[in-house]
Amino acid sequence: MRQAEFDGRGSRIRWTESEGEGPALVYVHGLGSMSAVYHAHLAGHPALVGRRQLFVDLPGHGISDRPADFGYTLEDHAGALAAALDAAGVTGAELVAHSMGGAVAIVLADRRPDLVTRLVLTEANLDPNPAPTAGSSGIASYTEEEFVHGGGFPAVLGRVGPLWAATMRLADPLGLHRTAIGLVRGTEPTMRELLMKLPLDRTYLVGGLDDCLPGRAELVGSGVRVVTIADAGHNIMFDNPAAFVREVAGRAAV
């Protein structure tokens, strides 16, 4: 396990990694998740063996610290991720980012183009103020006090189902709530607008079981490669790992 300070006050962002060659693959998890849980089962696939692969947990999640005086905005998370990559000596990485992590990856690519050469975004959040769901918008519907101390956290854990709850219950309630607030608020320009103007290789993966990506034509027109993955929902890496690895590996047959 490796770590780096991210807030100037001693808080650490942590990750595990495998040694290898070529541009580093950096996995970024979604809200209430952990990178190793969602991605490490793919690291030994023949198409990915030999690559350097980093499994980073964002602040407030997994094995990383959870400072109470941290903002947990998308920009804050991107800054912490940059601190990890700088400490790891990574430049020109390929970011494989899921859901909320995709929004963080877009912000990082915009702010630190030296760190990123390629984005593979799995059902990433692109727009602010999403429709109410049990996830980010459901968490953000509570005040911080209600969520952290008033029963909101266990109520959300009961609504998201056992798979998501398995990692969400390990997240810091305060960090989780502030992250959800930041995700619902989004960025200015929006994550979608930032993604469309980024001058790098961009792939956006959509689960085919509920293929309802708004603005698909506009994304494609800006150079984003949009790929629908059959037999998969939001968690494509679990539902169709072979197709997921094919896209992470760079479209090569696996």
TrEMBL record:
Pfam families: Abhydrolase_1. It comes from Streptomyces violascens. This is Alpha/beta hydrolase. GO terms for molecular function: hydrolase activity. SUPFAM superfamilies: alpha/beta-Hydrolases (SSF53474). It comes from the Bacteria. Residues 23-131 form the AB hydrolase-1 domain. Keywords: Hydrolase. InterPro entries: AB_hydrolase_1, AB_hydrolase_fold, Carboxylesterase_BioH.
